[in-house]
Amino acid sequence: MRSINNKIIFLGTGGGGSMVCLQKCSTAGFWANVEGVNLYFDPGPGAVWHIRQHGLIPDDLQGILVTHKHVDHTADLNALIEAVHYQMTRGGWNFKDYQVLVPADVYQEGYITKHHQKMPGKIIKVQPKQEYFLKHLKIKTTKKLVEKPYYKNKLDEFGYQVSGKKYRFTYLPETFYKKGLFTDLASELIILNAMKPTGDYYQQTKKIIKEISPQLVLLRHWVKKSLEYGIKKMARKLAKDTKVRIIALADGDVFDLTTKKISKK
Ligand SMILES: [Zn+2]
Question: How far is the CA of 108 from the centre of ligand 1 (A)?
Fold first, then answer.
């Protein structure tokens, strides 16, 4: 059994339909331990399998947080709810002391089955710019984001800022830029889902980073085009264009919130 303190482990760094299909990068989402509280973000396809492969146990999770309903962020949501609920690693079952935070449409459109809706202690349908509490952590949602203009009014999408006593980070899913969308999002550390590395998509990502102006961006959510372009090349270009430190994440990378360094353990 692996325990991680104040670390974020990136079980998956892939995203989008192309990577759901190819799995050259896992689309499992990621696990964060912040001051003893274990959170899982965006359980896409393979989340439970990758949790086990990395020696983590679902029983330890106190929160599951979903940014939006697309399959690369929700495919394993029911499986993960069930895995936490039954607590089979410790032989227990019907565990209730965990929360699931999802945008309202994830709940209303049945992404959590009726059977699984009864399992967590609480399912919170998150709203923009609200504060929620998970143990001692404050979880603040961003304004409503826009993954692609195409999804306007078809998608509830939010980022999450997690603040403890000592540590703070913001996770932003793939989103387009809109002036002022990120201005109140002061954060030293951003985990950002990349979009395509060229053209307008690239410009959008650049503007978002510039508006937030964090000290460090951990970039993930690689689609097929990102791998073809080169993820390190994209990070270098973004760093040059924004003057912000950018790290291109790979599957299995572990970010230490204390040292701010990446390792494989
Ligand atoms: Zn995605």
Answer: 20
> Can you give the length of the chain in residues?
265
Output the CA 170–ligand 1 centroid distance in Å.
Answer: 16
pLDDT given for residue 92 in this prediction: 73
Two tokens, residue 253:
């990378």
Residue among 105, 41, 25 nearest 76 (CA): 41
More confident residue, 135 or 95: 135
**Ligand 1 center to 157 CA (angstroms):** 11
Task: Please state the domain extents for the chain.
Answer: 7-263
How do 254-256 and 262-263 pair as beta strands? antiparallel
pLDDT at residue 97, rounded to an integer: 87
pLDDT of the residue at 108: 96
Render pLDDT for 109-123 as a digit per residue (tens, 0 to 9).
Answer: 999 999 999 999 999
Whole-model pTM: value is 0.96
What's the 92 CA to ligand 1 centre distance in angstroms?
33
Give me ligand 1 centre to Cα 67, in Å.
Answer: 9
Q: Tell me, what's the pLDDT at 28?
A: 98
Ligand 1 centroid vs 19 CA: distance in angstroms?
9
Smallest Cα–Cα separation from 10: which of 40, 36, 35, 38? 40
CA of 81 to the centre of ligand 1 (A): 20
What is 7-263's CATH number, 2.40.50.140, 3.10.450.350, 1.10.1040.10, 3.60.15.10? 3.60.15.10
- The neighbour count for residue 208, using CB atoms within 10 Å, is 24
Please give the distance, rounded to the nearest whole angstrom, from the Cα atom of residue 15 to the centre of ligand 1.
5
